[in-house]
Design a protein that fits this description.
Strand content: under 5%
Oligomer: single chain
Structural class: mainly alpha
Helix content: 40-55%
Length: 79
């Protein structure tokens, strides 16, 4: 996995916590896929915080571009 500077890491974590920011938007901006975001979150957070986050985003339609109606952070190539 690629290493990130502290500002990038903070931004990725922030975007991962946001309900309406899709994993695709994170991938477009930082070049890391959903599975890599999950692994980064696992490494960067306490176990209890990671479990809470996973429970929250698992199956959430707004975290996946194909099922999200949100246009927030959506690049033109994500239609």
């Amino acid at each position: 996995m690629r290493s990130f500077d502290p500002e990038e890491l903070d931004r990725i974590i922030e975007m991962a916590w946001e309900d309406r920011t899709t994993f695709e938007a994170i991938e477009y901006q930082f070049g890391i896929a959903e599975q890599e975001v999950i692994e980064l979150m696992r490494q960067s957070m306490k176990s209890s915080s990671f479990k809470m986050w996973r429970k929250r985003v698992t199956g959430r339609k707004t975290k996946h571009g194909a099922t999200s109606r949100s246009l927030r952070f959506r690049a033109k190539c994500h239609k």
